[in-house]
Amino acid sequence: MSETARVDAWLWAIRIYKTRTLATEACKAGHVKVNQASAKAAQNVKPGDEVRVRIDGFDRILIVQHTISKRVSAPLAAAAVEERTPPREPIPRIAVRDRGAGRPTKRERREIDRLRGRD
């Protein structure tokens, strides 16, 4: 393990992204921040750095424990990162009708309006 590693290689090695190309593209798109600053793919990370990764509309907060730049076993990858992401709030369920179910009846429409808060 070296003292520093590229941020894209580190994100790939700890299994945040399936491929290094996806990690590089996320950096180019501005979805990766190191210590509160946008990171380019070649930026180095070192132990103690905070890495924020935006995935599916949510930020994952990761603290670098060890720097690795090659894919390793899952237990070693898990030891290289400390996860500080707060738990996600549950997404409220919305009324969904099956496709092709036809128009809602008057009763169903009232229930849909009640669920959406349009009493």
Describe the model.
The protein is an alpha+beta fold and 119 residues long. The protein has a domain of 79 residues: Structural Genomics Hypothetical 15.5 Kd Protein In mrcA-pckA Intergenic Region, Chain A (Roll). 27% of the residues lie in helices and 21% in strands. The protein contains 4 helices and 7 strands. It has a 5-stranded antiparallel β-sheet. Strands 1-4 form a two-stranded antiparallel ribbon. Strand 2 and strand 3 form a beta hairpin. The protein is elongated. The termini are far apart. The relative contact order is 0.16.
How would you sum up this structure in a few lines?
This protein has 119 residues and is α+β, with helices and mostly antiparallel strands.
The ordered H/E elements are: EHHEEEEEHEH
Distance between the termini: 61 Å
Share of residues in helices: 25-40%
Give the low-confidence spans: none
Count the E strands. 7
Please supply descriptive tags for the structure shown above.
119 residues, alpha+beta, Structural Genomics Hypothetical 15.5 Kd Protein In mrcA-pckA Intergenic Region, Chain A, 5-stranded antiparallel beta sheet, two-stranded antiparallel sheet, 27% helix, elongated
Strands, helices and their partners?
Layout: E1 5-6, H1 7-13, H2 20-28, E2 32-34, E3 37-38, E4 44-45, E5 50-55, E6 58-64, H3 74-79, E7 81-83, H4 106-115
Helix pairs in contact: 1-2
